[in-house]
Design goal:
The complex is a heterodimer. Chain A is α/β, with parallel strands linked by helices. In chain A, about 60% of the residues lie in helices and about 5% in strands. The chains are: A alpha/beta, B alpha/beta.
Chain lengths: ~425, ~425
């Protein structure tokens, strides 16, 4: 982890629905109208002790609608979500996010994306079934039809102890109109759970689109871009590259130059993270050739800021300042407070390089105040960490360690312990 | 719907579910019967449970000769409940030490060293009970406990850092604290676990010696011999199970105390088992409950047994006779499957606003079971199952073992071992024209 990336300013306003991220413009009532929906609710309400059930789905949109409706129906029973990720593969890890009181209370936990997990995960469910049945929680494992056969084979004991299989597969038919969210590539970077939620819905939608013969390539391209950006933020860099390259290959199908510029910028960010500085510069400059032409001022400012970071990385301090000032000339005009905050945080690191500690502290404080007002806890943690990492680069280990530990604590609070672990290791190494 | 104990603790008055909500709670396929819920136990006339008791009582209780037993069975056959019942019945005569290795070490990582070490710690902890230390000679007791504390500190932890128990504690409390520290380290610190394992590998005889010393003390104090019950040594997959059992039988049977090991059914049919099994005085496989004889005539006894399992938990007006019959047949004689079908049928009935389980509710649960088989069976397996339905002969082939694992094929026993296809799968074979 060379440095952590703050959430970039979205290129369009984002308005996630209250139930998360809706895929289609209209609801899919078929799944909710089934007896399976009522029966699953009955089981979860009356099982009293721990139990688990499987819910089979064919469409991610229907799955998410059923979950949202069950959450409402089962109130006041608390509900939680766990999504498979290579970073935290054990399903038992859902317990780590609960307090002691929450662990003792009845609740419902929805598990997603297990079909993306290796067989070892299913085996671990088989081995840990007593630990799971000892919890007072109703567990619902969402699986595809293919996942069903695999679960039976890989975890026969766990499967045999299920309290039921509930079918939410939809009748095949043409896809309904897509929602605004599905027609965008916007992402929200806040807490770990929400990042995983966006990944699972986007990945599910993408899988369905790829399996649909007449799916619009432009919508496919948008999902690749979204996934590429999300994977980048959770450090799955090879997956990020794959998706961004797919998005680039499909750019011609999206009749929007902004999309091409967004892909170029995302590829630039990835190259910068992987220390491919020449490639990063090429991508950013190509994006910068597009944004001003289409009046995309936010995109232009984001790339200026990114080129500033690249210059800072190359120790071209004058160039870095020039780029940051160019970005700062745009952000306030368009009310992009997150972008503005990101520049102040970068200016803080620049001031450190220039040996002006007082200015550095002031710029960092200014950035953090902006993030605070935006309630952006991820960026606060990331920028405190980046400031500490910059101090490490300058061999100021004693100054760096407390900041790295502070950032580690902040990452733990928002459910990103993997970053916390890395930062604590760096703090420990700095103090040795 | 609570379980109330009467003045005679051996006769529990249990209440059966009177509503579908209670039925959903009581028919829980996740929970084997244990403790108070053993009041719902139905005696299946298991020869395995009877013979294990005979072996233990005749050899260990009467003659002081420890016996080691392997206990196995197919998924969902009622193994855990049967073992819990056995422990309950033996508790008055034996000092039972239940060992659940998976609470400390994942089955994917379990080694024979872990098994011995965790068993030892469980015994050390169990022996701190008042009934043991209250009756043992004080001087001897002190020597043993001081030795155990030293052993854990110096041999188990060695150079590893550990939290030292308070000096003010008496020696048994210190041992308890050290055991807790061991379990925490072993469970959560992979590097400490590796260090302890490698330190202990060459010193297993020292651990076994202490187990033996303590077992003697427990027997003198309580008049009951120690019986280790390993309830999850069947969990490791066949490869690790093979390394655990087949490569280290002398260690696992090395202590002077009786032990029951649960054993992976897949290893039961492996070639190595023939040479390995002689290390154990008894090997018992809990068969599924037969619903049909080998000639496909109904087995009334098996059906009645499963009917009793449901009768114990539900009031009779909560399920129609037709529904109950359907459920029993669809279970294939697997107790867990019966309980799961019952719970799912109760959910279906309550979901449609009914007051009792009817045939349509069970039919719906059976559809899901059927879908399970459709999702898991490969095309070539249907042909194989059709052939097995005709011959009913078991083989040690991997393919047959796979089918047993998915419970599409069920193993039965009445003097000889034979197999039959799950009744729900029989219907699938008929639909495919593979059976008349």
């Amino acid at each position: 982890m060379s440095s952590l990336t703050p959430a970039s300013s979205p290129t369009k306003p984002v308005a996630p629905s209250p139930n998360g991220y809706t895929v289609f413009a209209e609801a899919l009532p078929e799944a909710l109208a089934r007896d399976d929906f009522t029966n699953l609710a009955v089981l979860l309400r009356y099982a009293r002790e721990g139990c688990w059930a499987f819910a089979v789905y064919s469409h991610v949109a229907a799955r998410e609608e059923v979950v949202a409706a069950l959450k409402t129906l089962l109130q006041p029973l608390p509900t939680y979500e766990w999504t498979y990720s290579p970073e935290r593969p054990s399903p038992l890890s859902y317990l780590e996010t609960l307090s002691e009181t929450q662990r003792r209370e009845r609740a419902v936990v929805f598990f997603f994306d297990l079909e993306r997990a290796p067989d070892e995960l299913w085996k671990s469910l088989d081995y840990n079934r007593e630990a799971l049945s000892a919890q007072p929680h109703g567990l619902v494992f969402w699986i595809s039809s293919a996942g069903r056969g695999r679960a039976m084979r890989a975890a026969p004991h766990f499967w045999s102890q299920r309290s039921g299989v509930f079918d939410f597969r939809l009748t095949p038919g043409p896809l309904p109109p897509f929602s605004d969210w599905a027609r965008s590539s916007d992402i929200v970077i806040d807490d770990w759970g929400n990042i995983l939620r966006q990944i699972r819905i986007t990945q599910g939608l993408l899988d369905e689109l790829l399996a649909t013969p007449d799916a619009p390539p432009a919508v496919i391209a948008l999902q690749h871009l979204r996934l590429g950006r999300l994977c980048y933020y959770v450090d799955r860099l090879p997956a990020a590259r794959t998706h961004l390259e797919e998005a680039a290959a499909l750019a011609s199908t999206v009749a929007d130059p902004r999309f091409s510029a967004d892909v170029l910028q995302a590829l630039g960010d990835l190259a910068l993270r992987e220390a491919e500085l020449g490639e990063a510069r090429r991508r950013y400059e190509a994006a910068l050739a597009i944004y001003p032409q289409i009046g995309a001022r936010l995109g232009e400012a984001n790339v200026q800021k990114a080129l500033g970071d690249l210059a800072l990385r190359e120790a071209e301090l004058g160039e870095a300042r020039r780029r940051y000032e160019a970005a700062l000339a745009i952000y306030p005009q368009i009310g992009a407070r997150l972008g503005e905050a990101n520049v102040y945080a970068s200016l803080a690191r620049l001031a450190l390089r220039e040996g002006d500690d007082e200015l550095a502290q002031a710029q960092l404080a200014r950035a953090l105040a902006f993030y605070q007002s935006l309630n952006d806890r991820y960026s606060i943690a990331a920028q405190v960490a980046n400031f500490g990492i910059e101090l490490l680069r300058l061999q100021r280990r004693d100054d760096a360690a407390p900041l790295l530990l502070q950032a580690a604590g902040l990452f733990e609070e928002i459910g990103l312990p993997q970053y916390a672990v890395q930062l604590r290791q760096r703090a420990g190494a700095a103090l040795r | 719907m609570d379980i109330r104990s009467m003045s005679d603790a051996t006769k529990l008055q249990i209440e059966r579910a009177a509503t579908l909500e209670d039925a959903i709670y009581l028919l829980n396929p996740q929970k084997p019967l244990e403790g108070e819920t053993l009041a719902y136990y139905v005696d299946r006339g298991s020869l395995a449970r009877r013979d294990i008791q005979i072996l233990l009582r005749a050899n260990d209780l009467r003659r002081g000769e420890a016996v080691r037993i392997l206990f196995s069975g197919h998924t969902g056959c009622g193994k855990s409940t049967e073992l819990n019942k056995l422990c309950e019945e033996l508790a008055g005569s034996f000092f039972i030490v239940k060992v659940s290795t998976s609470k400390i070490v994942q089955p994917t990582d379990l080694t024979y060293v872990d098994v011995v070490l965790i068993a030892a710690m469980e015994l050390f902890r169990a022996a701190t009970a008042q009934e043991v230390i209250g009756k043992a000679p004080a001087v001897r007791l002190s020597e043993i406990w001081e030795d155990l504390a030293d052993f854990i500190r110096q041999r188990v932890f060695g150079h590893l850092p550990y939290r030292t128990p308070a000096e003010s504690l008496d020696v048994t409390a210190k041992v308890s604290a050290l055991i807790f520290e061991f379990e925490t380290k072993y469970k959560s610190e992979a590097s400490s676990r590796d260090t302890i394992r490698s330190q202990m590998e060459g010193r297993l005889s020292e651990i076994i010696e202490r187990i033996n010393t303590l077992a003697v003390m427990v027997r003198q104090s309580t008049q009951r011999p120690v019986l280790f019950v390993f309830d999850d040594t069947d969990k490791p997959d066949p490869e690790r199970g093979r390394a655990l059992f087949f490569d280290h039988p002398t260690t696992l049977t090395g202590f002077q105390a009786s032990a029951i090991y649960t054993f992976n059914i897949a290893l039961w049919y492996s070639r190595e088992f023939k040479t390995f099994r002689d290390y154990f005085s008894g090997r018992f496989l809990l068969p599924n409950i037969k619903l049909f004889h080998r000639d496909e005539a109904p087995d009334e006894h098996g059906c009645t047994l499963l009917q009793t399992v449901i009768d114990r938990r539900l009031q009779p007006d909560l399920i129609t006779p037709d529904a109950l019959t359907q459920m029993i047949v669809a279970s294939g004689g697997l107790v867990r499957s019966l309980i799961g079908l019952g719970q799912f049928a109760a959910v279906n009935a309550l979901g449609r606003g009914a007051q009792r389980i009817e045939a349509q509710d069970v039919a719906r649960a059976i559809v899901e079971l059927r879908n399970d088989f459709i999702a898991s069976l490969r095309e070539e397996e249907y042909t194989m199952l059709a052939a097995l339905r005709r011959t009913k002969q078991l083989a040690a082939d991997d393919e047959v073992q796979d089918l047993l694992q998915t419970v599409a094929l069920l193993q039965y026993e009445n003097g000889e071992v034979w197999c039959d296809v799950h009744p729900v799968v029989v219907e699938l074979l008929r639909e495919r024209g593979l059976l008349a």
